[in-house]
Write a structure and sequence with these properties.
globular, single chain, alpha+beta, 2 helices, 197 residues
Amino acid sequence: MKTLILTLLIALVSVGVASARFHPVPNMPGKPSDSAPVFASSAVESLIQNSGDDLVPWPWGSEMPFPWFFVQGVWMAEKGDFRTFFAFRVVKDKNDIRQLQVQQIDPESCELKASGVAIETNNIVRAQMTSSNGSVYRLSLRSFSEKSIPSSTLISQRPIYGQYVVLSLFPFDRVDGVHLPIQQISTQLNYKCLVER
């Protein structure tokens, strides 16, 4: 049984690699343009490859209840030269179930780059994000207690209410991604751009 599962996994990975070779995604030198996907596979893959070992030992599987009470607002995700904003708005559907409207915003131009709606399962909020040109990526949000992170770990983002909020980005067709602690820069949804870093 294990051999069969391993064979199927290898076949799936091979198909994914082969399709990636026949359907190249444009490179994104410098700032993303309107014609280039915001999170083309190459951009997320570049983030993943350049991240090296994640220096933060996130305690996967021990996520705190999702912080609905303070998540609304504008948040910054930053790693190396990569920087983007996400606006989160808490809403309820017709069945009174909480959802998170998510918008990715270019921090320099204030342009909307992608949007989606996230739902929570098992303390993790997940969304499929779609850009104006149709490219798709996946996003998830988790919250961890600052006490669950070793005190020797260097994290530039500050905890909020004793929690770190971690944003994970994944190409649509991949399971590996990049995990970034994010920082809330405004509780107001109309604050979307910074003049300086």
